[in-house]
């Protein structure tokens, strides 16, 4: 039996094509979008603005496409990790992070990842497939805390720019007036720095950009991140220098600190030299130990020294608070679960 196609994840332009296919006027697309993204409909029968016959015909081919989490895990610090249907051999995880008046959702864009970073459990599992825009938006709409979200980060499983079009479609749905109408300042996309795709993201959206850097020396970054060979950080920085990040759009660099690998004064000086002239900040991140890895976290005292030296050198640096480590939800720890036969 053929699975019905989801309506969530469709942009207004795509919904206009659906409306035309069923003989509905063009404005019906906005009505459907409002039901999907504003009213959070879970069934086509709720779309009472549409003629009954049109709803019946639409239901033959389409479904809203909402799926509740398959499972959840709750941290002692309030973080919640949700398991969602994925693709290929893996389900995917997203993480809800409450923090005072902020509520952030870390979403996944792929099942697994091709980038194979040595410090990341997602990369270790290999690549299983790209999520659709429907899969991404479902993570946002289907958690219990959905309507209280203030921020969204594409920092879950996968490399967002390796699945560019669904990510762009999801951003359009999140920010468009016919969608969730979020300010793009509420969204951050993290990337290892795929040059062509990064250029497209910067020029077609106004979301914040976060680049995974982790080592200022190319040879050392290559040992941590194989992508340095084909996408050197120097080329990424050359691209970023063409854009203005001095106003409301934020550029940040993620720097996981490993004891004895990238955490000494030499690395700090080189990192400051590398970023000089860019309006940016550095987020220092504690490494969360993962199985079968020789990498180790460095002490908080060392992270604070590194931060203070960067600040003294004119580079704004902060230490990101670690959240959800006890449920394997912290940075670099997402792995999803193998899909069962009934989920495939």
What's the gist of this structure?
This protein has 344 residues and is an alpha/beta fold. The chain is built from 11 helices and 14 strands. The strands form 3 sheets. It has a 10-stranded mixed sheet with strand order 3-4-5-6-9-10-11-12-13-14. A two-stranded parallel sheet has the order 1-2. Strands 7-8 form a two-stranded antiparallel ribbon.
The strand order across the widest sheet is 3-4-5-6-9-10-11-12-13-14
CATH topology of the largest domain: TIM Barrel
Oligomer: single chain
Strand content: 15-25%
Q: What would CATH call the architecture of the largest domain?
A: Alpha-Beta Barrel
State the shape: elongated
Structural class, by secondary structure, is alpha/beta
Number of strands: 14
Order of helices and strands: EHHHEEEEEEHEHEHEHEHHEHEHE
Major sheet: size, sense and barrel closure? 10 strands, mixed
Given this structure, which CATH class of the largest domain is correct? Answer: Alpha Beta
**Distance separating the two termini:** 13 Å
- The CATH superfamily of the largest domain is Aldolase class I
Total helix count? 11
């Amino acid at each position: 039996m053929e699975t019905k196609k989801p309506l969530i994840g469709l942009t207004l332009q795509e919904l206009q094509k659906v409306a035309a296919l069923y003989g509905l006027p063009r404005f019906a697309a906005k009505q459907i979008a409002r039901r999907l993204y504003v009213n959070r409909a879970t069934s086509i029968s709720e779309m009472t603005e549409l003629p009954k016959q049109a709803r019946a015909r639409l239901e033959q081919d389409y479904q809203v496409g909402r799926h509740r989490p398959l499972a959840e895990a709750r941290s002692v610090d309030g973080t919640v990790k949700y398991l969602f249907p994925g693709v290929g051999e893996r389900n995917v995880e997203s993480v809800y992070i409450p923090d005072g008046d902020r509520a952030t959702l870390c979403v996944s864009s792929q099942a697994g990842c091709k980038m194979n970073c040595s410090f990341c459990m997602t990369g270790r599992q290999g690549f299983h497939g790209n999520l659709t825009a429907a899969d991404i938006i479902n993570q946002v709409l289907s958690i219990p805390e959905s309507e209280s979200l203030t921020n969204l980060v594409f920092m879950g499983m996968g490399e967002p720019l390796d699945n560019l079009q669904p990510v762009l479609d999801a951003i359009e749905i999140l920010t468009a007036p016919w969608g969730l109408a979020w300010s793009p300042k509420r969204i951050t996309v993290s990337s290892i720095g795929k040059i062509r795709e990064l250029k497209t993201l910067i020029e077609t959206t106004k979301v914040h950009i976060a680049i995974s850097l982790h080592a200022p020396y190319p040879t050392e970054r290559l040992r941590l991140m194989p992508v340095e060979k084909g996408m050197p950080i120097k080329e990424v920085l050359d691209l970023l220098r063409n854009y203005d990040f001095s106003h409301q759009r934020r550029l940040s660099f993620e720097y996981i600190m490993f004891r004895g690998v990238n955490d000494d004064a030499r690395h700090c000086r080189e990192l400051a030299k590398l970023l000089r002239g860019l309006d940016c900040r550095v987020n220092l991140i504690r490494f969360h130990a993962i199985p079968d890895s020789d990498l180790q976290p460095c002490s908080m005292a060392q992270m604070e020294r590194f931060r203070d030296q960067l600040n003294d050198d004119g580079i704004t640096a902060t230490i990101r608070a670690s959240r959800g480590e006890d449920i394997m939800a912290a940075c670099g720890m997402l792995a999803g679960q193998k899909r069962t036969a009934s989920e495939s």
